[in-house]
Amino acid sequence: MIGILIAAHSSFGCELIKSYQLIVGKTSQLDSVGLFHGDNVDNLEKSIESKIKELDTGDGVLILCDLFGGSPSNCSAKAIETLKNSHKIECIEGANLPMLIEALSLRDTVEIHKLKYDVINVAKDSIIDIRSKFNF
Known about the structure:
- The protein is α/β, with parallel strands linked by helices.
- It has a single domain (3-127), classed as 3-Layer(aba) Sandwich (Rossmann fold), CATH 3.40.50.510.
- 50% of the residues lie in helices and 17% in strands.
- It contains six helices and four strands, in the order βαβαβαβααα.
- The protein has a four-stranded parallel β-sheet, with helices on both faces.
- Strand 3, helix 3 and strand 4 form a beta-alpha-beta unit.
- It is globular and about 50 Å long.
- The model has no long low-confidence stretch (mean pLDDT 97).
């Protein structure tokens, strides 16, 4: 099973997990790390590396980050570089609830590289103009 890690600012990742659990229920191999005001980014990178090692049971880890170029994203990129020889890791920016639901729904049935693209497609399809959708 592919592990899922959310790396984000503040408690966004934790709250995203709570929203998932409200809709679907609890699951395993899912966790988050957050960067809070005053935190050291070196510690964030170490936390991300530690969570990857914890979540990876052999099928890899998909990281969902909130914002490209932010510290959680940059630290995830550094962790991927550090662990690239020992872990299969993919990372997608722009984390949202539809992405998380898709990732957790498919992670038992596809390889990590396919999961990444499936989640990206769901993210694109989840942006909807409600006025256009309902012809308001």
